[in-house]
Design a protein that fits this description.
By secondary structure, this protein is α/β, with parallel strands linked by helices. It has 20 helices and 16 strands. Helix 15 links the parallel strand 5 and strand 6.
Length: about 625
């Protein structure tokens, strides 16, 4: 019995060391991303760390459940090979610590704790591994050191069991084991509350700007792994929602109008925030000049924070309102209405261009399902001009895309997705590196030149004069010069609509979101067939002027002046972000209630159309 109690103490000490590592990594998460938590003092962090122990203990017990059972089950703990338990302990905790370390640097790109959908990058692992090792070698060194310390702690807390220990005390061991099971269940649940602890519970303990400091990355990964997307409890009835959100679209009903079969070319720029367009420092001189002779949309919001969310929003009008991105979710095979598919039915040739290797982020599979007939990736381009990280250099691939389009039969619809500006912000050899405050800005200036090269090549082709160009971004950049990266600025992207043959307004001061781009293009073409779409054309007179997102378990709706936040417990908060940019005081007004109604209705329609497959 004494040996069994010694084993219990050994397990406790080992898990306590892992808990200590979790706390240290939370402090590192705070320190390295300090610019995102500028309003949180270190004393406040200490308080949040105490509250976060519930999340830490729960994650540690989930990750060590097999090890604990193998160590404490009566009789089994004697016969189980110690080397096997050592492997289980070290390997399991090494993975959890690695996830926590990686997320320290991954968080600024997504502004949420890592979830299982980060595994969508696994297909690019071997391509990106050399660049990752070269830049983040110290992370690998830290992980190796932690593995070494885990081994040391395990050996140092090993107990010497007497071989002649009698089995006559089995009932005592069973009693202690059952007691330990009680503590284990409480720890796994995160406390004695009615329901097990979930990531969303952090919102009840800390404000939006701080609650990610309560949780930890293994905890959110575990919960996203077991969570299945399903229709949540409705906020409003479908009948009421349909009366607020109209998804049935029909343009070109004027007898004087005629469907203009212009070519349509989307250029989607990787990681570009609106703040860098028309900036006094002139980071994007070509795009700035193009915006001055185009329709410029100053208030367009992304519907997600990742490329795998932005592309379906732009071409299929599907916002990212669930945990998993649409492309990698169980709904990816649902029939949805997409721009290339609609135009293909009208005789358009359709093609998608992305310089990464084929299969990256499943974009080639999505492109086919969205109605793009042809896909041009690194496989089609060839092995030359590789940037060493993601794929073909933009200054080579974008003119190549224009050359391919010149061979297409008109009309055609094409999507072009750049690789830059993207970490690790590489530039081609021989490129003059402009003096910039951040390497992101140098990469941004580079892609601006690449887009200039695309238009230089396209202007030589016959299709150019008969083309509608839409230039936007998949999501905002991790780097920002703004004082705050809040729930407003972190979604604000640019959009430029240019056409040599269309008379477009110079600017529209309305709230637009990515899912509005598809119906906007069809409206500009006077598309004359009915279709279903969650977005609203930017020039519709009765548009709602609201953009929708979902981040860290909270739905949100952004208008010109207000933001409404809605969690899955139907708790609502409204802020005037123009007068109150720190979201310090909730307000109630008729406009807030109207936005709340629109948000709840949109969620219900979205769930019914997509999650229930009812287009």
């Amino acid at each position: 019995m004494a040996d069994y109690l010694a084993e219990v103490r050994s397990v406790a000490w080992r898990l306590f060391f892992v808990l200590f590592c979790f706390v240290l990594l939370r402090w590192a998460f705070y320190g390295i991303n300090l610019q995102l938590f500028s309003d949180t003092s270190f004393l406040r962090l200490f308080y949040l760390s105490l509250l976060g122990l519930r999340f830490d203990i729960s994650a540690i017990l989930y990750g060590n459940l097999l090890f604990v059972l193998c160590s404490l089950l009566p009789f089994l703990w004697r016969s189980c090979y110690d080397w096997l338990k050592q492997v289980i302990f070290v390997a399991g905790n090494a993975v959890m610590l690695a996830v926590s370390i990686v997320d320290i640097y991954y968080y600024p790109y997504t502004l949420k704790r890592m979830t299982w959908d980060a595994s969508d990058l696994a297909g690019d692992l071997f391509t990106l591994l050399p660049a990752f090792i070269a830049e983040f070698w110290y992370l690998i060194l830290i992980e190796v050191l932690l593995i070494g310390v885990l081994l040391y702690v395990y050996v140092a807390t090993r107990t010497d069991r007497a071989a002649e220990e009698a089995t006559a005390v089995w009932w005592k061991e069973t009693g202690v084991f059952l007691l330990m099971c009680g503590f284990l269940i409480v720890g796994l649940r995160g406390g004695l509350q009615m329901k097990p602890l979930k990531p969303i519970d952090a919102l009840t303990m800390a404000p939006l700007s701080e609650f990610v400091l309560l949780t930890n990355s293994p905890f959110t990964v575990f919960h996203s792994l077991v969570k299945q997307e399903r229709a949540h409890e409705s906020f409003v009835s479908l009948q009421e929602a349909d009366s607020v959100i109209n998804t049935n679209k029909l343009f070109g009903t004027d007898s004087l109008s005629e469907f203009r079969k212009l070519n349509v070319v989307f250029i989607v720029i990787e990681s570009l925030s609106a703040e860098f367009i028309n900036h006094p420092e002139g980071y994007t001189p070509f795009l700035d000049s193009l915006s001055r002779r185009s329709l410029f949309l100053p208030r367009i919001f992304a519907n997600g924070k990742k490329s795998i969310e932005g592309i379906p929003a732009i071409f299929s009008g599907i916002p990212a309102l669930m945990e998993a991105p649409f492309i990698s979710s169980g709904y990816s095979t649902n029939p949805v209405v997409s721009l290339p598919a609609l135009l293909h039915k009208e005789g358009y040739h359709t093609a998608f261009f992305h310089g990464a290797r084929n299969g990256s982020m499943h974009f080639d599979a999505y492109a086919r399902s969205a109605g793009f007939q042809d896909y041009y990736g690194r496989n089609e381009y060839g092995s030359r001009d590789f940037d060493g990280s993601w794929g073909v250099w933009d200054h080579k691939f974008l003119p190549y895309a224009a050359q391919q389009m010149a061979r297409f039969e008109q009309p055609f619809c094409a999507g072009v997705f750049t690789l830059n500006p993207h970490h690790p912000y590489k530039l081609p050899k021989g490129t003059i590196r402009e003096q910039a405050k951040h390497e992101f800005l140098g990469s941004l200036h580079y892609v601006d030149k690449a887009i200039r090269s695309f238009f230089k090549q396209a202007s030589k082709a016959s299709f150019h004069e008969h083309t509608l160009y839409v230039i936007t971004a998949d999501h905002t950049a991790a780097y920002s010069q703004l004082r705050r990266q809040d729930r407003i600025n972190t979604y604000l992207v640019p959009a430029i609509v240019y056409s040599p043959s269309l008379d477009l307004p110079s600017t529209l001061d309305v709230v637009v979101q990515q899912i509005d781009l598809m119906p906007s293009v069809l409206q500009m073409l006077d598309y004359d067939r009915p279709f279903n779409c969650l977005g609203t054309a930017c020039m519709e007179s009765d548009r709602p002027n609201v953009a929708y997102q979902y981040l860290n378990g909270v739905f949100q709706a952004i208008s010109k002046q207000h933001i409404v936040l809605l969690n899955q417990r139907s708790e609502v908060q409204c802020y005037d972000y123009v007068l109150d940019p720190t979201f310090s005081t909730t307000i109630s007004s008729p406009e807030c209630r109207q936005i709340e109604k629109q948000l709840k209705s949109f969620i219900e329609v979205y769930r019914n159309r997509l999650l229930v497959n009812n287009w």
